[in-house]
Structures are given as C-alpha cells and as structure tokens.
Amino acid sequence: MKKIVLIVGLVSMVAFTSCKDNASSKIKTDNVAEAAVRDEAAKAVPVMSFEKAEHDFGTIEQGTPQETVFTFTNTGNAPLIITDAKSSCGCTVPNPPKDPIAPGETGELKVNFNGSGQNQVTKTITVTANTEKGSELLRIKAFVNPKGAAPLGPVK
C-alpha cells in the first residue's frame, strides 16, 4: 500500500512540474495594448452636475399647474445619456432631453407639476443615466392651499 501511494505521488509530481512553461512567454503584446485601450475607455464616465437639486414653488393654489427647469452640466469626460426620468407621483411629469449631452455641455430637464394635493407637498424625480452612480435624485415642493381658501402658507 505504501508503494502505491509513493508511486502515485511521484507520478503526480512529475506530471504537475513537467507542464510548467514560462507564463510570461505566452502573453501577446497585441492583447496587452488592446486591454489598455479598453481600460482607458472604461474610465471615461459622464458626470451630471445640477445647478440645484431641489425647487420650491412656494405657496400655490390647488390645481394650478407649475413648471420648473433643472439645469445640469456634463462635467465628466464621456457623452451623458439620460435613459429614464420618473417621478414619485403621476402629478409630476419630468421631460428629459433625448439627445446625448457632450462633455462640458449643458442640458435641461423640465418638470411639470399639476398642483394637486394639499398642505406641504414634496415629490421626487429619479433621473437614470449612464453616470457612475447610475441615478440622480431631484425634489420639488410646494405648499398647496385648497381652491377658494384664504392663503395660509406654512407656519414658521
């Protein structure tokens, strides 16, 4: 039994050590250059920099449509592509630009709010894009007075 274990051990040692070639001799320089270009391209990422991330409409009358524009700049080094913009409620409709925004260029995201709700209202807009974070969060808010009611506004 000891002889069999010894023979199997010797055979496997010879088998594992005889196949070792110099691994660095198998590297193709074309593949290294191609990988370097690919890795450098992966570092090129767009960045959305908003002038403001929140807009306050103030005190409005219920049912009065409101509109604001969130202005942003692509401060990254690749074209910015907005793939989606969704709000937390159907009363708020974001309208993002359809075309890519080149590095250094500015874009606008229009947001319409139909003025529904009562008292303090806050809505969020999630902008999905090809940025490193993948999404940005914007907010709109307003104090909505019921139609025909005397203006109250928030208490300070």
Radius of gyration: 30 Å
CATH class of the domain at 46-143 reads Mainly Beta
What form results from the Cα inertia axes? elongated
Percent helix range: 10-25%
Annotated CATH homologous superfamily of the domain at 46-143: Immunoglobulins
Mean of all residue-level pLDDT scores: 85
Number of helices in the DSSP assignment: 2
Order of helices and strands: HHEEEEEEEE
- Fraction of residues in β-strands: 35-45%
CATH topology call of the domain at 46-143: Immunoglobulin-like
Poorly predicted tracts of residues = none
CATH hierarchy: architecture of the domain at 46-143: Sandwich
The biggest beta sheet reads: 4 strands, antiparallel
Topology:
Elements: H1 2-18, H2 29-43, E1 48-50, E2 54-61, E3 66-74, E4 82-87, E5 92-95, E6 106-113, E7 119-129, E8 135-145
Parallel strand pairs: 2-8
Antiparallel strand pairs: 1-3, 3-6, 4-7, 5-6, 7-8
Summarize the entry for a quick read.
The protein is of the alpha+beta class. The protein is 21% helix and 38% strand.
Describe this structure in words.
The protein has 156 residues and is α+β, with helices and mostly antiparallel strands. It has a domain at 46-143: Immunoglobulins (Immunoglobulin-like, Sandwich). It contains two helices and eight strands. The protein has helices spanning 2-18, 29-43, and strands spanning 48-50, 54-61, 66-74, 82-87, 92-95, 106-113, 119-129, 135-145. The strands form two sheets. It has a four-stranded antiparallel β-sheet, with no helix packed on it. Strands 2-8-7-4 form a four-stranded mixed β-sheet, with no helix packed on it. A hairpin with a 5-residue loop joins strand 7 and strand 8. It is elongated, with a radius of gyration of 30 Å. The protein starts with a helix and ends in an 11-residue tail after the last strand.
